[in-house]
Amino acid sequence: MFICICHAITEKDIAAAVEQGAGTMKELREQLNVASQCGKCVQFAKNILTDMTVNYDLAAEAA
Predict the structure, then answer these.
(1) DSSP secondary structure string for all residues of 22-63
(2) Does the chain have fewer CB atoms within 10 Å around its N or its C terminus?
(3) Is the pLDDT at 63 greater than 80, yes or no?
(4) Who's near 20: CB < 8 A, 6+ residues apart?
(5) pLDDT at 50
(6) What is the pLDDT of residue 54?
């Protein structure tokens, strides 16, 4: 699903950035340019980032 229409960023793009170490919106913005133009995607991107980092942390603890 597209999250940022302005830059054609998908949920998978955000997930890949998190796997590569992005843990904040600033880091996502630096890597993907998400939420850098109109800003309508900020809340969606934050929600995905939070979900991904929580799930990523839980998976790391289980390993």
Answers:
(1) --SHHHHHHHH-TTSSS-TTHHHHHHHHHHHHHHHHHHHHH-
(2) C
(3) no
(4) 31
(5) 92
(6) 80
Bridge partners of residue 4, in order along the sequence: 9
Structural domains of the chain, with CATH: 2-62 (1.10.10.1100)
H helices then E strands: how many in the chain? 3, 2
* β-sheet bridge partners, residue 2: 10
CA distance linking residue 41 with residue 23, whole number of Å: 17
Helix (H) or strand (E) holding 2: strand 2-4
Q: Which of 19-28, 34-43, 53-62 has the lowest mean pLDDT?
A: 53-62
Q: How far apart are alpha carbons 3 and 48 in whole angstroms?
A: 9
pLDDT at 53 over 90: no
